[in-house]
Amino acid sequence: MTRLVRALSMAAIGALAVTGAVWLSGLTTRGSGTSLPDQTADPTRRTAAVERRTLTVTADLDGQLRHSGDYEVLGGLSGTLTWTPPPGQVVTAGLPLFETNGAARASLMYGSRPAWRSLQAGVSNGPDIRQLEQTLKLLGYTRRGDRIDRHWDSRTTAAVKRWQRDRGLVADGKVDLGDVVFLPEPIRVTAIEAKLGSLVGPGTTILTATSNRRVVSVDLDLGDRELLERGTKADVRLPDGTITSATVVTIGPISTASSDDQATPDPSLPVTLALDDLQAVADLDDAPVR
């Protein structure tokens, strides 16, 4: 190729490049004086409104209907164990948890701090007094104007006496150490750990229990972690085929559970769901669900 032909060829390529640049510029400068041909007249073109929708992922998981929480009732009264509630019984505030020597009863009161001292007039202020007064108010043994606080006064003594008389206890207005057991909520007895007739004392495990709240637990494979978050709604299929709803309340931490055919434990995430309608499972105990 001669130098002249080469020069003409390069000039032609340069012209094409300039032309392309101008055409692209026309595409990107609509509204500035240059516009594309109107294509709305094309009868084959269709438009549709954009809709925002929620992407739903469905998975079928094995679950277990159970009672939440694990509690251990320790003895505070010394003597021979003469009575306990049977497994499955629900014990609420003010009711006895066990009995020693045929008469002394340890009663349930609500509170997160365990009892550590006797309570009566003249005792120093403390959170155990508030727990006791809150429970007595819940049970209806306080009167209008009674203050619920950390201080023991004559009104506290009077409320304790009303509760003691109502339960057939000695109405002395005192709560000796061991007379009450503070737990955060009503409990459902699962097992009796101490035998009737055995000698028990402070620190003896009398019985174990759960709460009376039913939840659904699921061991979630790590690979399915993205399926659930706290607050996720789920349908729960009960053993009789009925469907009720639940909400994820806790996820994790990672646990390991040995499988039947593997020596190495399989890691999983324990998930807890709170049932939205507890009446739907009122007649069920522990049961498998989906």
What does it look like?
The protein has 290 residues and is an alpha+beta fold. The chain has 2 domains: 67-211, PGBD-like superfamily/PGBD (Muramoyl-pentapeptide Carboxypeptidase, domain 1, Orthogonal Bundle), CATH 1.10.101.10; 213-289, no CATH class. It is 18% helix and 29% strand. The strands form 3 sheets. Strands 1, 11, 12, 13, 14, 15 and 16 form a 7-stranded antiparallel β-sheet that branches. It starts with a helix and ends with a strand. 20% of the residues are buried.
The CATH topology of the largest domain corresponds to: Muramoyl-pentapeptide Carboxypeptidase, domain 1
Share of helical residues: 10-25%
| Shape call | elongated
Query: Helix count, per DSSP?
Result: 3
Give the domain tally: 2
